[in-house]
Design a protein that fits this description.
about 220 residues; alpha/beta; 2-enoyl-CoA Hydratase, Chain A, domain 1; 3-stranded parallel β-sheet; 11 helices; about 20% strand; globular
Length: about 220
């Protein structure tokens, strides 16, 4: 079974999350697919960008597959470590990254979105939420470093400590996302921005991003 797919269009890699039955959540099998796709993207050398969207209008990504985790509690530490490494890899990808948040973006999915360079969100439906405080899974040190990429410290503090769910327009006001659009415009506008970023010199862009995120470079990557 394939959980995600990748295609390239007009110098933009489009990664589509395609497991709506499981809310596009993370499991070891899903991470295996991400690793293979990220290997392909990182091995490319031309100027490009990465746009991450979802085939479901309801959900972008809801983080950890809790059913899998509850059935494999002995593997919790190893799984969280793998999630940390995935988040670091996404945050430090050597190209521009854009999230097209078409629906609910919860917990680990919200951290995943925070690792991206830019976030565009649907304005009318869907919620952004750090639900860790309610599902009793504390942020790891790496996860904290990732969500601290968000510019509004007050909003970050509120979301991380309360688990409050916020919609597109409130996310825009809190500087969690960069733009909001109606559902019918979201992908097109996200793609246009990804095309704009794909014109940037990839080496220069990567250096600037890594220097802006220098704290992440000090975290151990396996």
């Amino acid at each position: 079974m394939s959980f995600i797919s990748l295609r390239e269009e007009k110098n933009v890699f489009i990664l589509t999350l395609d497991d709506p039955e499981n809310d596009n959540t993370f499991s070891p099998e899903v991470f295996d697919e991400y690793d293979a796709i990220l290997d392909e993207i990182e091995s490319s050398t031309h100027n490009t960008s990465l746009l991450i969207t979802s085939s479901s209008p309801k959900t972008w990504c809801n983080g950890i597959n809790l059913n899998w985790l509850m059935a494999h509690t002995a593997e919790t530490d190893a799984f969280i470590h793998r999630l940390d490494q995935f988040l670091l890899r996404v945050a430090l990808l050597n190209l521009p990254t854009v999230g097209s948040l078409v629906g609910n973006t919860y917990a680990g999915g919200a951290i995943f979105a925070s690792a991206l360079d830019f976030r565009f969100m649907r304005d009318d439906r869907g919620r952004f939420c750090f639900s860790e405080v309610d599902i009793k899974l504390a942020f790891s040190t790496t996860m904290i470093a990732i969500i601290e990429l968000l510019p509004n410290r007050q909003a970050l503090n509120e979301l991380a400590l309360t688990g409050v769910r916020v919609g597109g327009e409130e996310c825009l006001a809190k500087q969690i996302v960069d733009r909001t659009y109606p559902q019918e415009e979201l992908f097109e506008k996200s793609f246009e921005y990804a095309q704009f970023l794909a014109e940037k010199d990839r080496t220069t862009y990567g250096l600037i991003k890594h220097r802006l995120r220098k704290e992440l470079l000090t975290i151990k990557r396996d």
